[in-house]
Amino acid sequence: MPTVLRRKAFLISSLALAVGAGNAVAGGFEKATMWDAKYTALGGAAASSVNNSSAIFYNPAGLAFSESNDIAVHASPTVVRANGPANGSDYTKGKRLFVPNGGFTGAYRLSDDFVLGYGVYAAGGAAAKYKGVTTGKGGLEQTGDYGTEIKLIEAGLALAYKINNNWSVGGTYRLTYAYADIDIMSKTEIDAGLVKLPVGVKVGYNDLSGIDSFGMRLGAMYRSDDNRFGWGINYRSKVDMKAKGDYSANVGPLSEKGKATAKTVLPMQISTGVDYLVSDNWRLFGEATYTNYKKVDKIEFDTDISGTPIGKKVLPQLNTNWKNQMNYRFAAEYYGLDDWTLRGGYVYTTAVVPEKYAAPTFSTPAAAHTYILGAGTSFLNDTLLFDFAAEYNRAKNKNVKGGGHLAGNSPAASGRYDTEAFAVHATLRYKF
Q1: CA–CA separation, 203 vs 250, rounded Å?
Q2: Where does the secretion signal sit in this chain (predicted)?
Q3: pLDDT higher for 129 or 424?
Q4: Can you spell out the DSSP letters for 231-299?
């Protein structure tokens, strides 16, 4: 493959990894809510009140306020669709994708003051796909599907300590696993003397995976003596993500394969929230979550391509220039029914992706809105708990100007962007 073509293919295809990594509807690498049905129904506003094994994720200090040991299974199947100016058009509808989501958590009381937590669960991810796209022409085209799949899975081991009847602290040690399977299609041009020929480009990064073993969550919680009021804070450390896998490129009639590595970070996050029992039947929740996504200003690439004189480190960095994110969470819980608790929540999420650096399979460069309703009940003398919730998430921007240089001379596409997701959540918890 000619050197100029190869470099242009890499510049265009380097967009792919950030595209997949960024297409969570709420922005960045994460949804605004995750997998526990009870706390999802509260909009994820759990830092002040979580008191079971899910505290390993929401606030490890909450483990110390657990009333019993428990194990829980969480399922959150999600359908997501990303739409945008794919393949040079102003607006193209993507394919609806089914994304499994969930986890397993457990808690065990070691003593009156110490509680152990453990679990494996989804920590983030993305999915987007466009079908039947053709780039280039005149016998130099590429036709096929392109999209991305990202999975972030966390294994955690937590320990919480109850200082007194009102205060607790806790921490979770995290192993974070990342998987990515990504394709990208675009076009470039070659100079054929008097004319420039449009050439189709199809590049794939497949079976990229890696583990970071240096993550922590730290938390503190306060509960009033009468349990009317609670406050909590949950800190998540940054983790460095490095994923290795296969690389392939097709530019017109030419092709090559090799190995690739991509580097980015899952940034620091901090949440703080309160809850208050306003009457015998109603409790209100509020929480703010800050994520330092400004740290994801670029994504770096290395590659080792067999049969070429270029060798390693030919993939450039991708300029993402993400912005810091805020999630504002509001929720209410109603206890007026004998056997049921009703819940509802709303989350407002600020945009992570700037309009200037938008792309069809990025997060939509707009604020996102999340609406959730749910309920919970118990069986077998309160030893078996069942919670469920339904969620709708939406972000849209009808007039994105784009134009920023994502990599080299590859400009961000202008046009209309929107993303929506539907999810159902179910948690079955056994207390013993």
Answers
A1: 6
A2: 1-26
A3: 424
A4: EEEEEE--EEEEEEEEEEEEETTEEEEEEEEEEEEE--EEEEEEEEE-SSSEEEEEEEEEE-GGG-SEE
Phi, psi for residue 366 in degrees, rounded to 5: -165, 160
Compute the CA torsion angle 48, 42, 125, 313 (nearest 10 deg): -40
For 55, the 3-state DSSP assignment is helix
From residue 305, give the alpha-carbon distance in Å to each of 19, 261, 314. 23, 12, 9
Break the chain into its structural domains and give their ranges: 3-431
At position 44, the amino acid (one-letter code) is G
Nearest to 31 by CA among 205, 171, 152: 152
CATH topology of domain 3-431: Porin (2.40.160)
Q: Which residue has the tokens 């003397």?
A: 193
Two tokens, residue 318: 């991708």
185 CB-near residues (< 8 Å, 6+ apart): 87, 130, 133, 135, 142, 144, 146, 200, 201, 202, 203
136 three-state secondary structure: coil
> What residue ranges in 76-195 does DSSP mark as E strands?
78-83, 97-99, 102-109, 114-135, 142-162, 167-191
The pLDDT assigned to 263 comes to 86
How many Cβ atoms sit within 10 Å of the Cβ of residue 340? 12
Could you read off the pLDDT of 236-288 as tens digits, one per residue? 999 998 899 998 877 777 778 888 888 888 999 999 999 999 999 999 999 99
Can you say how many angstroms the Cα of residue 161 is from the centroid of all Cα atoms in its chain?
Answer: 30
> From CA 267, how far away is CA 261, in angstroms rounded?
19
| CA 160 vs CA 333, 396, 409: distances in Å | 26, 41, 51
CA–CA dist 424, 373 (Å, integer): 10
CB 298 within 8 A of CB 262: no
Q: Rounded to whole angstroms, how far apart are CA atoms 336 and 358?
A: 46
Answer for the pair 234, 219: CB distance below 8 angstroms, yes or no.
yes
CB neighbours of residue 430 within 10 Å? 15
Asked if residue 37 has pLDDT above 50, the reply is yes
The residue-averaged pLDDT of 120-147 equals: 82
